[in-house]
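Reopening this one. Same input as before:
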Amino acid sequence: MKVSLRLITITLFAILLSCKGKITKDSNYFKTEKELIKSTLIDMWDAIEKGDIDRYASYVHPNFTQFGENDSVLRKGKEAEVKGIEDWIKSSTPIHTGMHEPEVTINGNTAWITYYWSDSGSTYGVPFATKGKSTRIFVKENDKWLCIHGHYTLLSKP
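Same output, byte for byte:
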């Protein structure tokens, strides 16, 4: 019995040692999750470009908050976010947003992505083309990443 217990202990210890270092922040799991967060944000923008407000809303957490480019106060709630995007879609065409230099960090079921963005289109017939920097925070609920906060800053033109 002593030998069997010792053998089991040594075997378990060897298994644990062999796993050491395999689950790191750069493991395939985290690489996949990071790509999933980036693609979620890109899909949110695609929904805006295509005027699909329901698809956009499916990525927004009920407790969403945001500091917009020109907002003087914090916008709170999914309803406020979806309504704001819906109004923008109705008054703007064609909208296009691009992401540059994204970096994703994951900590458990919370992740944040920092990136630079550029967008273009026209609102009420007036063309726009802006650039900025942003941080978005996502939470994973029911195996889906939802955007819970956005902070956007316009970069001044040179």
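So the earlier flakiness isn't reproducible anymore. For the record, The CA atoms of residues 25 and 131 lie 30 Å apart.
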